[in-house]
């Protein structure tokens, strides 16, 4: 084993990332829920001008619903497959 | 023609700014929350080699989806038409698959922390130091290009003065990388990936609807731009003229082989994401998971580019205020109501930050582990290098702010980036590929291959092309040819030098050259990694088949 491999293996054994880093899926889930709610509400009663601009498409509504769905997908994923945290090392 | 009078200013309101503000808060929050995971330098620079594959994979593609890439590729679409797909299907997918299936076992298995560190193991200190310095220099330049692109876009869209945009975005990136290290950069890239999609999809759908769907789009463009504008290969026969200024041979060899392999397989800003994966299987799957979104993202930039070419027939010419790079911002202004507009603005800023953060987080790693810890201040304890990494992150961001102005002299930002890549990445790729497959390649040959390849690409571009010695119609075409010249020169010089200098002792090549293995690397596969949908070979060949199939509708 080379010096480099020894050094990196040693650092790997002391690493705290796996044990202490939070689950990103939760953040994505909540952010897209919030965005989804905001944009869906903006799309519920579009003004004539907004509708005309988007060529008659309820774009806020559809985008909002899409983002809500993405947010829910991530939260359900976390629920179904929670992270298995490796035993955190004491400090 | 009201957009001429009003410029590209977007009608943003409080709702849009709320969406943007939420995003900034979450970005910073991720930085602070990732802080407690940073205990060693390996955590700070490589996330402790512990990330799952889906996260590193999405970060891998997001690191490439910078604002310059999005605006530049939409610009390429508006200028050259469907030919923009070459940058994705032939100019990305084969290289990503090659990185995963062929190179990753050596990269990840040898436990190197950076691309230059691999050169140190395989060749010698001169190749290592040269590539580290070139990479550090290039990443600051490219981060500067990103900053400049952001500043002009934000000034046009939101009316912020350029320096405000540079300071806000620069310091945001500075803060979250300094605090949370690579984990924070990678997590933010994954988030950015989804926000960018949420921004591009509505623009694409509304744009298509506006011009009468795909049929309306193609029939308008056929009339105004001719049939070749809507095919991938039309007019690319050798000797034929086309807008791209390249023939099929330079596209396949220059873009598809040399430029693309150089970028995807040796650019540390990309490879770093894979090196942070938790095991070899996850590292191999990183570029493969990225390949699938990459195949389809082209539609989200090409279609807005084409739509802009229909709606603004004079785009990019003297008769219009709009340049090709304005394609996406123009559609945002024309089509998006408040709400989705806020998402799109956030997505653009997110794309900018993804591109810049990838360069900054790879710069700090190379500067600290490859330059500082090996040649300047050696053998200090690990906490010193974490501290130094944070300091150099700050210095790197400040330096890239300074270089932002360099980007202003090129009309097409993408051309500028590719010029840089052809000078720095191409010789790197030659040296890697020969070093990995030819045991006899000597210690000295790495350094001379790098020098010769870089020099040849520069001479071809700045002397032979710019001085008009050989007539190549466009910058893009010249880039492809320069890349091929750099590749050939690097390879020839490496072989020649190897024949006259001594090879590296066989024992030191274990795990670095094809046909050898790192000692002690018999890692057990993690539970579930043997599932069929996690097999790298299947994912890789699947991506190639899909990319090839995508060409069919645009080839006849």
TrEMBL record, chain A:
The chain crosses the membrane at residues 27-47, 59-78. Keywords: Membrane, Transmembrane, Transmembrane helix. It comes from the Bacteria. This is Uncharacterized protein. The lineage of its organism: Bacteria, Bacillati, Actinomycetota, Actinomycetes, Kitasatosporales.
UniProtKB/TrEMBL annotation, chain B:
The keyword Zinc does not apply. The keyword Transmembrane helix applies. Signal peptide: none annotated. GO terms for molecular function: D-glucose:sodium symporter activity. It comes from the Bacteria. It holds the Pfam family SSF. It is found in: Membrane. The chain crosses the membrane at residues 17-34, 54-75, 87-108, 129-154, 160-178, 190-208, 246-266, 287-312, 340-367, 388-410, 416-438, 445-465, 477-500, 537-554. Keywords: Membrane, Transmembrane, Transmembrane helix. GO terms for cellular component: plasma membrane. It is a multi-pass membrane protein. Belongs to the sodium:solute symporter (SSF) (TC 2.A.21) family. This is Sodium/glucose cotransporter. It comes from Streptomyces jeddahensis. The gene is sglT.
């Amino acid at each position: 084993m080379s010096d480099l491999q020894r050094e990196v293996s040693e650092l790997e054994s002391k690493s705290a990332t796996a044990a202490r880093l939070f689950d990103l899926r939760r953040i994505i889930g909540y952010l897209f829920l919030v965005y989804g709610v905001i944009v869906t509400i903006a799309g519920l009663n579009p003004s004539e001008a907004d509708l005309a601009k988007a060529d008659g498409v309820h774009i806020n509504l559809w985008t909002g619903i899409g983002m809500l769905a993405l947010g829910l997908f991530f939260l359900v994923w976390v629920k179904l497959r929670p992270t298995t945290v490796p035993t955190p090392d004491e400090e | 023609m009201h957009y001429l009078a009003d410029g590209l200013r977007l009608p943003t309101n409080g709702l849009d700014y709320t969406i943007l503000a939420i995003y900034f808060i979450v970005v910073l929050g991720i930085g602070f929350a990732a802080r407690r995971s940073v205990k060693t330098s390996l955590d700070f620079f490589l996330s402790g080699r512990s990330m799952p594959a889906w996260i590193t994979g999405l970060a891998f593609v997001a690191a490439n989806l910078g604002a310059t890439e999005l605006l530049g590729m939409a610009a390429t679409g508006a200028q050259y038409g469907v030919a923009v797909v070459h940058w994705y299907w032939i100019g990305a997918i084969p290289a990503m698959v090659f990185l995963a299936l062929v190179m990753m076992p050596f990269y990840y298995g040898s436990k190197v922390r950076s691309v230059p560190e691999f050169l140190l193991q395989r060749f010698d200190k001169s190749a290592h130091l040269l590539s580290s310095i070139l990479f550090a220099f290039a990443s600051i330049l490219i981060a500067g290009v990103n900053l400049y692109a952001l500043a002009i876009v934000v000034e046009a869209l939101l009316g912020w003065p350029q320096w405000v945009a540079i300071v806000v975005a620069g310091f945001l990136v500075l803060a979250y990388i300094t605090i949370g290290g690579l984990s924070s950069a990678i997590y933010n890239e994954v988030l950015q990936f989804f926000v960018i999609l949420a921004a591009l999809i509505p623009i694409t759908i509304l744009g298509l609807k506006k011009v009468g769907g795909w049929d309306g789009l193609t029939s308008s463009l056929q009339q105004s731009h001719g049939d070749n504008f809507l095919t991938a290969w039309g007019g690319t026969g050798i000797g034929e003229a086309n807008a791209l200024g390249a023939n099929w041979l330079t596209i396949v060899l220059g873009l598809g082989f040399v430029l693309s392999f150089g970028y995807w397989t040796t650019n540390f800003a990309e490879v770093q994401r894979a090196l942070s994966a938790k095991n070899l299987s996850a590292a191999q799957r990183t570029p493969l998971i990225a390949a699938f979104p990459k195949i389809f993202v082209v539609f989200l930039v090409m279609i807005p580019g084409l739509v802009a070419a229909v709606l603004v027939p004079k785009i990019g010419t003297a008769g219009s205020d709009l340049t090709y790079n304005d394609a996406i911002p123009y559609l945002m202004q024309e089509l998006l109501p408040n709400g989705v507009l806020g998402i799109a603005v956030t997505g653009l800023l997110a794309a900018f930050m993804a591109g810049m953060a990838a360069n900054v987080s790879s710069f700090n790693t190379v500067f600290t582990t490859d330059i500082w810890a090996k040649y300047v201040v050696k053998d200090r304890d690990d906490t010193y290098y974490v501290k130094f990494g944070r300091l150099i992150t700050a210095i790197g961001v400040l330096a890239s702010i300074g270089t932002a102005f360099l980007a202003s002299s090129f009309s097409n930002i993408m051309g500028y980036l590719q010029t840089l890549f052809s000078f720095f990445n191409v010789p790197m790729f030659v040296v890697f590929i020969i070093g990995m497959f030819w045991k006899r390649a000597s210690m000295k040959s790495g350094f001379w291959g790098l020098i010769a390849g870089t020099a040849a690409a520069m001479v071809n571009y700045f002397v032979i092309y710019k001085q008009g010695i050989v007539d190549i119609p466009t910058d893009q075409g010249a880039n492809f040819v320069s890349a091929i010249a750099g590749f050939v020169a690097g390879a020839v010089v490496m072989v020649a030098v190897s024949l006259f200098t001594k090879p590296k002792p066989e024992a030191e090549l274990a795990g670095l050259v094809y046909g050898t293995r790192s000692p002690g690397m018999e890692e057990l596969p993690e539970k579930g990694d043997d599932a069929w949908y996690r097999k790298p070979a299947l994912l890789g060949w699947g991506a190639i088949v899909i990319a090839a199939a995508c060409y069919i509708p645009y080839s006849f």
